[in-house]
Amino acid sequence: MANCFSYDVFLSFRGEDTRKSFTDHLYAALKQAGVRTFRDDDAMDRGKLLEPELKKAIRESAISIIVFSKDYASSKWCLDEVLTIIEEHERFSSKHEVVPVFYDVEPSDVRKQTGSFEEAFCRYDDIIEAETDDEKKSEWIEKVKAWRVSLRKAGSFTGMVLADGYESEFIRNIVKVIRKKLNYKLMYVEDKLVGIENNVAEIESWLQDPSPNAVTLCIHGIGGIGKTTISKCIFNSNYIDYDATCFLANIHDTSTQPGGLLNLQKQLLLALKGEEVLWNIDEGIMKVVNALCNKKVLLVLDDVTTRQQLIALLGPQSFYPGSKVIITTRHKWLLNDFKIQPTVHFVDELYLNDSYKLFSLYAFGTYHPIEPFIVQSEAVVHHCRGLPLALKVLGSSFKGKTIDVWEDAIRKLEAVPNHEILDVLQVSYDTLEDSNDKDLFLHIACFFVGEDKDFIVKLLAGCDLYPVVGIQNLIDRCLLYIDFDGNVMMHCLIKEMGQEVVCQESPKFPGRRSRLWNHQDSFNVLKDKEGTVRVVGLALDMRRINGINATSIVIMGNERKRNYEDFSGHIIHTNEESFKVEAIRKMKNLMLLQLDYATFSGSYKKLPKKLRLLRWHGLHLKSIPIDVPLQKLIVLDLRYSKLKQVWDGFKMVGSLKVLNLSYSVELIKTPNFDGLPGLESLLLEGCLSLTTICESIGYLKGLALLDISGCTSLKNIPCLPRSLVSIQMKGCSNLGGPGQVKWLDSCSLFSCLVDIDVSNCNLFDSSFTEDFSNLTLLKELDISENHITSLPSCLKNLPRLEVLYASRCSHLQSVLNVPKSIGHLLLCDNKSLEIVQPTPNPCRTWVARCDNLCAVEGYLKWESMKNVDRKVIRYLGLESVSENAYIEEDSIKVLYEFGIYSTWVTGKTLPCSYMYKESGSWISFRVPSHPDGSRICGLNVCFRAIWDEVDDGLCLCAVEVENKTKALVWRYYPTIEREKKRSDDYTWLSLWRTGNLLDDGDEIVIGSIMLPGLVEEWCVNMMYDDEEEEAGEEIEEEKKDSRCFLNNHISWIDRLPVEVSDFVNNGKTYHFHSDISIGVDGYTVDWWGSCVKMKFWPTGSVI
Predict the structure, then answer these.
(1) DSSP conformation class of 1009
(2) Cα-atom radius of gyration of the chain, to the nearest Å?
(3) Angle 374-384/403-415 helices, nearest 10 degrees?
(4) How far apart are CA 209 and CA 295, in angstroms?
(5) What range(s) does the TIR domain occupy (predicted)?
(6) Rounded distance between C-alpha atoms, residue 855 and residue 863, angstroms
(7) Per-residue pLDDT, 48
(8) Which of 568, 1019, 1034, 1048 has the fewest CB neighbours in a 10 Å radius?
(9) What are phi and psi of 945, to 5 degrees?
(10) pLDDT at 955 (0 to 100)
């Protein structure tokens, strides 16, 4: 506010009353607070004419403080000041504010000119009475009248009254009010702020918590995520509420300089006590402790990286009541040193829409990309993956450039990362405390992003890298995270940073780097035999090499239903390039080797002896030569190979823990496991020709995982070791004969089992043994794609079963008596399923594409119209269904979930009249006020859609209701999908119980999220509280109707555990979906009220 003024405050006072007392103390307090204050007797000679200089001084001040004291009105000078101040305040376009301070006078004395003010004006009246000059007398009358009016106006402003309080506290309060009005920003923050509102709001809420356990807050996140910006915003808006404040910026950089910590202590003490003389850090700690214990302080410590910094700047952490300390850091482990555990606020990446906004502000100065740069902007925004620093840096660098420069710069970005971004991110790597953690980070960044955490731990433990503690250290520093599936993930720019660290080991000569992950670099190094002893890891996938003429191989994606018959034994992958084994020989320290679909010639005896990982997908050999040096190997991954047998004879590899031969479609038998005594995981998925598993498998005391999914030629399984934790048998339909899996009869012997998959094994109800009671540790069971009609009774004896898959069981009709321990129940694509009875405990249930489903007890109902009460039918617009000639009543079904009733009807005519109608994909309106003052309690939302003749299949509809006034968004994804037909026009009708979402005047926008361009018309009606009261008799009649007592009846009086009206926090986007794992931006809410914040990017990955 005050930036356009010469002064912040103009101080008006009666000198004889307060110049050397109250006003002097107030003036000193304002100056100490950094408020630029004009005190008239400092700048002007009172003997001079008042008008010109006074008006100039007032006009150049943002605020006038008028200190009204008992004799204030006795001074014509003071009254002229008040008159000028009021005139300036009332001047058009003036931003001048007035703050009256009533010092030993009452505001009413000023407004009404009573008390001492009356006495002063009586003297002015006497002067007027004694004046004989008519012209002067008239001037006096007008002057006194103007003074009275100005005092009345000045006394009416909200001001500060001393009353019986202490002057020192009174002055402090005045200073706070002035600083708040001035809205001073002590810390510079760029005005292009996007997507930080929720972060700021949550921290502001924490600041209001007076609890002694809410003293310290840690803002945690990766470099460049916006931690400092958020803390500056918080500091700027709250510093006036504290006795002393300090923002210590860039602590990491400062503390690494000579005398850095001491200088930080001096800066802190200067801010808190006005003192900066220090001789050593220990002295500084004692003075810091004293300062923190005696004042209510707001302290921000920005970019803390070590314990020493915390000790030097906080000491033993004793704080004055009401103090708040905010720490920004990438190192979560530092929080372990606090007496009282700090509140942790994690700053996540920006949502996709916010990413576009921020990038566009820097690149174009608008909130959206402009033509012809839209496609290029999408590429850059996707590259940044929600990191504000990257969006700002790259947006600024592209600003004003031509389209050809954009395209070339984007290509360069893929090969040469931006160092302004990487330098910030690399601080997290540079501060890692030992070389083991650095090596672990570089291994993951180069080779293992997206791999299972347990696999990485198993492999890299054999490389002496202590991965359990190392991975936790990397997580604490925001260098990686573990996703929902237990995979190790890394922000793509963090990954780039790690790879760039390796590149800088030898920028021009890849063969001299420690790790070769770029497939083209690996190809060149092997082709030219440029590898050196420095190489510890190399990855080559011949399918990714430019200019290589090779056939492709079928790779099963995670989202595709596996069809093992695809692997006919004729799938090949060949290329014209061949390497010499001699090219690898020079890399004597090589431990991690990936050679997918590469062909080598020469003696494999020359392979490095330190190998821990050998991954060779598409291996062209029929068997592995016996002389290959694999004595230290931990993981052997030969998926999609041409192997018929593993070894060319007996082979001892005592260190091997993981053997993966999946999709080796020519493999006939497994190796002799006597040579693999340490084996823990055996993966044989999709080995179509496999007929024999060596009986020696029974002696593998450490075998935990066996995957024989899709081994359709396998008819018998030998005795298995009791150490098994997981067994995967999907599609093994020939084990033990039709309708049987012989292994199931004895599975209760395996008391360690945690995970069993017997899906698509041609099983019937009778196939399951009656007793699974010995499987006390079983947590996950998959019985999908079998012929069961109900859940096997043996499940009730599984006390720890948490996840049950029973999808695509075409005969499954009901799911009742679900074990109480189950938390995830997947029942998708069960065409005969009618009713699901979840456990009394929260149990996430997926029931998509179950066409005959009637109810998920307590959470969802789907019934024909005859089982829906009349009130719901009326509000859905279905009362006159027969008159409007839709379709027969029995064929219309109503879905009820999340407090939303909905249905589909065919035809092009809307069933009833609506308040609002609009053509297109969206409708917008402002909420009207009801004539009787009733509140809106519901919305009747309808759209009419048309389908083209080409697009057949299921209609997946997502509808959004946005309250733009409250910045609140609801998005609803119906669990039951409607099967549509060619050229099928239809209308979707819905009734939403909205609770307190809607107020008079709110701007509402409603639209379809997933069907843009297909919706022809939207219609909306309001439902009011008084209409609910009028329907009271109707509801009572419904209760008398015998239908209402049926469990499958849908009634207006039904209430669900979770409804949309329960989620009304302003500024948030809620997605209501039975599957909480859907990839969307915002908060996903399921039937049980779980509210999870998600981020979704175009590649389909959820962050």
Answers:
(1) S
(2) 38
(3) 20
(4) 18
(5) 5-182
(6) 8
(7) 46
(8) 568
(9) -125, 155
(10) 52
Structural tokens at position 502 = 């390796």
Distance set, CA 957 to CA 865, 969, 979 (Å): 21, 16, 11
Please give the backbone phi and psi of residue 323, each rounded to the nearest 5 degrees, phi first.
-70, 155
Exposure on the CB side of residue 434, measured as CA atoms within 13 A: 9
pLDDT, tens digit, for every residue of 367-384? Answer: 889 999 999 999 999 999
Would you tell me how many other CB atoms lie within 10 Å of the CB of residue 358? 26
At residue 840 the predicted structure's pLDDT band, cuts being 50, 70 and 90, is low
- pLDDT tens column, 13-57: 988 888 888 999 999 988 887 788 888 764 444 444 456 777 788
Q: Which of 536, 516, 448, 615 is nearest to 527 (CA)?
A: 516
Question: Burial level of 559, CB count in 10 A (0-12/13-18/19+)?
Answer: exposed
User: CA 296, CA 5: separation in Å to the nearest integer?
Assistant: 31
Rounded mean pLDDT, 1007-1017: 68
H or E element at residue 374: helix 374-384
| Cα–Cα separations (whole angstroms), residue 245 to 277, 298, 350, 771, 811 | 19, 5, 30, 68, 69
Residue 769 scores a pLDDT above 80: no
Q: Which residues contact 274 (CB under 8 A, 6 or more apart)?
A: none
Tens of pLDDT along 873-930?
887 877 755 454 444 555 688 888 888 898 888 766 665 677 888 887 788 888 887 6
What is the rounded CA–CA span in Å between residue 805 and residue 242? 57
Q: 288-297, 954-963, 974-983: which has the minimum mean pLDDT?
A: 974-983
Residue 211 DSSP one-character state: -
| Dihedral over alpha carbons 824, 830, 834, 838 (to 10 degrees) | -10
User: Rounded to two decimals, what is the model's pTM?
Assistant: 0.77
How many Å apart are CA 132 and CA 129, to the nearest integer?
A: 8
H or E, element range at 53: helix 51-59
The answer for residues whose C-beta is within 8 angstroms of residue 145's C-beta and 6 or more apart is none
Do residues 83 and 91 make contact, with C-beta atoms less than 8 angstroms apart? no
DSSP H or E run through 438? helix 435-443
The whole-number average pLDDT for the span 167-172 is: 87
> What does pLDDT average to over the chain?
83
Q: Which amino acid is at 1027?
A: E
Provide the annotated active-site residues: 81
Query: CB of 134 within 8 A of CB of 118?
Result: no
Residue type, 1031: A
- pLDDT above 60 (res 626): yes
CB-CB neighbours of 217 under 10 Å: 23
815, amino acid identity: V
H-only helix segments in 193-298: 197-207, 227-238, 251-255, 260-273, 281-294
Contact 804, 825 (CB under 8 A): yes
Q: Which residues sit opposite 67 in a β-bridge? A: 13, 101
What pLDDT shows up at residue 745? Answer: 55
Specify the amino acid at residue 400.
G
Confidence of residue 136 (pLDDT cuts 50, 70, 90): confident
Residues 623, 645: contact at Cβ < 8 Å?
Answer: yes
Distance, in Å, from the CA atom of 556 to the CA atom of 574, rounded to the nearest integer, reads: 19
Predicted confidence at residue 550, as pLDDT, reads: 47
Going across the sheet that includes 900-906, the strands are: 814-815, 835-836, 855-856, 860-864, 893-897, 900-906, 986-993, 936-945, 1015-1024, 916-919
Distance between CA atoms of residues 415 and 507, nearest Å: 12
Question: How confident is the model at residue 127, as a pLDDT?
Answer: 87
Q: Rounded CA gap, 490 and 222, in Å? A: 11
Distance CA(360)–CA(370), nearest Å, equals 8
How far apart (Å, rounded) are the C-alpha atoms in residues 1040 and 257?
82
